[in-house]
Specification:
Blueprint lengths: L1 H6 L2 H7 L7 E7 L5 E4 L2 E6 L2 E3 L10 H11 L8 H4 L3 E3 L5 E11 L2 E14 L16 E2 L2 E2 L2 E5 L5 H14 L6 E5 L7 E2 L2 E2 L7 E5 L3 H12 L3 E7 L2 H12 L3 E7 L13 H5 L5 E6 L6 E7 L4 E4 L1
Parallel strand pairs: 10-16, 10-17, 11-14, 11-15, 15-16
Antiparallel strand pairs: 1-2, 1-7, 2-3, 3-4, 5-6, 6-7, 8-9, 12-13, 17-18, 18-19
Helix pairs in contact: 6-7
């Protein structure tokens, strides 16, 4: 909650500070539109007296509100966070990630920066200790970790689930060294060289950089047993998976999809399914609540556990 005090306006923070922080997932501001909050997996407007279902009672965001939050989050140095802005987000202290939209400035098809911000989404991370425990036994075979892909639509708890798997492996003193490739600084949320979110005592963390850089440098430098990374999304990511797989390193990753069967339609991922690189698929849903386990599937996409 302290980090929100630093980045939000006093009026907005005073309203939010009265809420149960463990149920606060997202705060969205859009220029000229009502401020909304995802609270306990329900969407509310923000009124002067707290959350409301009535749009007429809601506070509206303006361009200055949005610009001030971005300035606060960057310590008044947009230049310092421009590499993040080009990817559409800002990483704030404590694992908070702020999605940003505005006018893209490009040159020769490359994004130079983003300006004239018109909306943002403040995503609040949570440690949910034990959320992976029911699934954990299905991710091993005779003490060997099986390549695992966590699948869900956006906002269904993939990152939280990955974080807990890493934590539980360490917490149960399993003999695996884990390397987290925290490209967007969401899984472990390192600040000044210290992880702010608990990923376990046997876990090392690389922040920033591309997954390709992380896979190559991480394998060379840390000799991990398991590499954990979030949100696979392009051909380069899939190529990195193949590199790790041929080096004997086990994989724990996540990807956006509404079902395991949808994966076969993702460009570049069809071969990974065909080659059965991943031995386990964990499907999550945000219904009835974030992080709900729908099921665990094997390499043939056959359900072996139903949540």
């Amino acid at each position: 909650m302290e980090v929100l005090k630093k980045i939000l306006s006093e009026i907005l923070f005073n309203i939010i500070s009265k809420l149960d922080f463990s149920k606060l997932y997202e705060i969205r501001l859009r220029n000229g539109q009502p401020i909304t909050i995802n609270y306990n997996n329900n969407i509310y407007f923000v009124g002067e007296n707290g959350l409301t279902n009535k749009e007429n009672d809601s506070l509206k965001a303006d361009k200055e509100d949005i610009s001030q939050i971005i300035a606060n989050s960057s310590n008044y140095s947009l230049y310092a966070i421009n590499d993040q802005l080009k990817q559409g987000y800002i990483s704030a202290y404590g694992g908070i990630r702020i999605g940003v939209v505005g006018e893209i400035v490009d040159e020769n098809s490359a994004i130079i920066t983003v300006k004239n911000f018109n909306g943002l989404n403040i995503r609040i991370p949570h440690e949910v200790k034990g959320c992976s425990l029911n699934v954990l036994p299905y991710l091993f075979n005779q003490n060997e970790f099986l390549n695992t892909l966590v699948v869900s639509s956006p906002g269904a708890g993939k990152t939280t689930f990955l974080r807990d798997v890493c934590y539980q492996i360490s917490n149960h003193n399993m003999p695996f060294n884990i390397l987290v490739l925290d490209e967007r600084n969401e899984i472990a949320s390192c600040y000044d060289g210290k992880t702010m979110l608990n990923v376990g005592k046997f876990t090392d963390v690389i922040t920033g950089g591309t997954k390709k850089m992380g896979f190559i440098n991480g394998i060379r430098s840390m000799s991990p047993d398991i590499i954990c990374t979030d949100e696979l999304g392009n051909i380069e990511d899939y190529n990195s998976i193949n590199i790790a797989n041929t080096c004997g390193v086990k994989l724990l990753a996540s990807i956006h999809a509404s079902s395991v069967f949808e994966l076969s339609y993702k460009q570049g991922f069809k071969e990974i399914i065909k080659d059965k690189i991943f031995k386990r698929f964990v499907l999550l849903s945000n219904k009835p609540s974030k992080g709900t386990v729908v099921g665990v599937f094997d390499e043939n996409l056959k359900m072996i556990y139903s949540g």
